[in-house]
Each structure stands twice: as C-alpha cells, then as structure tokens.
Write a structure and sequence with these properties.
This protein is mainly beta. The chain is built from no helices and 6 strands.
C-alpha cells in the first residue's frame, strides 16, 4: 500500500438534544445530495480520510462534501456543504533496485 497524505474533515457540533450522530456525504463529480455515497459517524465531529472511511474514493479530484445531523428517530438536518480538493493518488513505484560492487 502506498503512503498517502491524510485529510482531517471536521465540523461544528449540532445543538440538537436528541442527536444520534452525523452522516458525511460525498460526490466526486459534484452535486452532493441525500442520494450520494455516505458514511455514518456516531462519535465526534471529525474524521480522518481515507483511514476512518474505507469506502471514501481514493481519487485526485475536487470532491463535494455534505454533513448532516441525525436525530435518534433517524431524521436528518439540512446539509452543510463544501468543496475540497483531495489527492489520494500515489506515483508509480520504481521498477527495480540494482546493487553493484564498486571497483
């Protein structure tokens, strides 16, 4: 596995009394909405990508993110959105290592 630089995504907590957690949505080609790919986050107000969300795409592209608060009844808030550039692509590895004796 290549070594890639991680990104921390964080948000301000919801003031809802019956908060169950959050949903982080994303769309690589823009237009993030409630039908986009997402991950549920139950603890805290931040995630480290890509480590903590294995389904997050390993792309080099602008990604639109959306975060919602989820109540214990399963209702979701309006979505707060942003666009950020992610570069989770690694260069191609060298082909071989050659070790030679010196005269």
């Amino acid at each position: 596995m290549a070594k890639i630089r991680k990104k921390r995504v964080r948000w301000n907590a919801s003031n809802t009394n019956d908060l169950a957690g959050y949903k982080l949505y994303w769309a690589v080609s823009g237009g993030v909405d409630y039908d986009s790919d997402f991950a549920e986050i139950y603890d805290g107000t931040e995630v480290i990508l890509p480590d903590e969300i294995s389904s997050f795409p390993l792309v080099s592209a602008d990604v639109e993110l959306g975060i919602t608060a989820v109540s214990r009844a399963g209702n979701e808030s309006d979505m707060t959105k942003c666009v950020a550039h992610f570069d989770f692509s690694a260069p191609e590895a060298p082909k071989e290592i050659i070790v030679e004796d010196m005269k």
